[in-house]
Amino acid sequence: MKKTITFLSLFISALGIAQEPCSTGRYSSDVYPTATLTSNIVYGQNLNYAGTNKILKLDFYEPTGDTATVRPLIIWIHGGSFLGGTKTDADMVALSQAFSKKGYACASIDYRTGFFPIDSANSVKAVMRAVQDARAAVRFFYKDRADGVNTYKIDTNNIFIGGSSAGAITALHLTYLDRTCEINGYVPMGNLTALGGLEGNSGNPCYSSNVNGVINLCGALASYGWLEAGNLPLCSMHGTNDGTVKYNRGVVNPGVPLMYLDGSRMLHEQAQAVGVQSNFYTFYGADHVPYLGGSATNVAYMDTTINFVRDYLIDRLACTNPILQAPNAPAQTATLYPFTPCSGNIPVDFCTGAGLVESIDDLKFKIYPNPSQNDMVIEFEEETELRVELFDFSGRNLISKEQFGSKIQLERNGLNNGIYLLKLTTKTGKLVTQSIIFN
Fold this sequence. Notes:
Elements: H1 7-13, E1 35-47, E2 53-63, E3 71-77, H2 90-101, E4 105-109, H3 120-146, E5 154-164, H4 166-176, H5 180-183, H6 189-195, E6 214-217, E7 220-221, E8 234-239, E9 249-251, E10 260-263, H7 264-274, E11 278-283, H8 296-316, E12 348-349, E13 354-355, E14 365-368, E15 376-391, E16 397-410, E17 418-426, E18 431-438
Helix pairs in contact: 3-4
């Protein structure tokens, strides 16, 4: 993954933490008979599509009686077409329990769902909100370890992200969407900034959201080309007759056609083309999420899923164990359409919350503290004259005034908690936008 490694994440890696060795049978077999569940742990908060604050929670599963001080973590993201679903969906519970018995810690997360009108533009925003929340969940566990609390005993070198359906779409975008220019064709830059950027503002700023692998169960990516040489290996499983999220390439259609995405078959083809490891299993003749349900057939699909994902994970942990479910031959032909990689990103200092936007006439600035409980300061390298405007998510202009100086006070003046869009315009008409948070 092409992500800037912060000093903090490098420091955590330098601690030399390592999980229990594979030779004990851990990670490859059910070494623990049960999993212990801790429900409704708060990992963040953010505004949903309707502008209402959403408290974000996760369910944490761990091996019962485990004495290990560091464990690899799988963060699971539920499906539901970005309109529904919960962290307690049957497949999320089954996967979390299964891998906890093998010695992993697992977190099944809730995230912001819902969008309206139900159309392609708003579905893209829903994906971005889900990705931001998932990043906050990853950061939550980095924070726990770095702060010395170590409640969850996570090996932050081995955090994996995975999901089913919409959750898999989220996990793939978290892993492979890593430049703002890639999303510009779907979400204009101003809207992306208003949403909180690629990392988002859902909680635990200043910590890494890096993962060590991605598990894609019946998911897809907006463009196969975002998977590039040097990216993380992926594990994908998908049914050839999936009518909701297409196996190859097509419109995601959970009852309403939403957006074109590149399915697992396209991602496998691209991975092979650029030299990225791709563990790919095809459910021949199967529809969407065939492992979900209580029938004998569903259970058999779930067993296959657990075994295939297990093989991928033990490889990522550098374990040498017998393969339980080997990859099979892909179906269909995947035709990679012409794709030109983009370049460009908005550098953001997530540790301070300051957004170092590209330039206003080459004049750099920062905003701090962000988030803030009171006022903020906009600080420039030299004195400048500009218009300062503040908008809420409904588009209302809350502040509009001319300012001059190198330090400009942005007064809260009783504004409610939430995310706002700050717009700065120079006398020459050049502008930048930056999301800010009052809490």
